[in-house]
User: Which sequence fits this backbone?
């Protein structure tokens, strides 16, 4: 479980960012912007949850083959799930504010790019 903790911590940080961004959009631009932003964040966050589940199911040297297979399956599933969620959002949600959707989507992805740089960093003097 300790090796899985950073992934789940990152997912929690992403979820908090999604919720704060959606609430901020709701307050400043109205309900359409708010739920559009929430959809964009969920389109990024849910596939990341799927990937984390698939990627960290196995551990240990004996499961090396399963780990690699699981990573590839997780990434493929993440891409497919992202495409399906975008299609569902644009086909099924009217009205939709695309800039809010894409903005929070990108913000959520940026959290996953930047958070590993800050997580677990210890500053010690030489």
Assistant:
């Amino acid at each position: 479980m300790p090796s899985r903790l950073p992934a789940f911590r990152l997912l929690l940080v992403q979820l908090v960012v999604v919720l704060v961004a959606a609430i901020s959009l709701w307050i400043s631009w109205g309900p359409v912007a708010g739920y559009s932003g929430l959809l964009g964040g969920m389109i990024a966050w849910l596939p990341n949850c799927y990937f984390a589940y698939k990627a960290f199911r196995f551990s240990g040297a004996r499961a090396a083959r399963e780990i690699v297979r699981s990573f590839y399956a997780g990434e493929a599933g993440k891409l497919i799930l992202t495409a399906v969620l975008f299609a569902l959002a644009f086909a099924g949600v009217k009205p939709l504010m695309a800039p809010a959707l894409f903005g929070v989507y990108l913000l959520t992805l940026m959290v996953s790019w930047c958070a590993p740089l800050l997580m677990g960093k210890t500053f010690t003097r030489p």
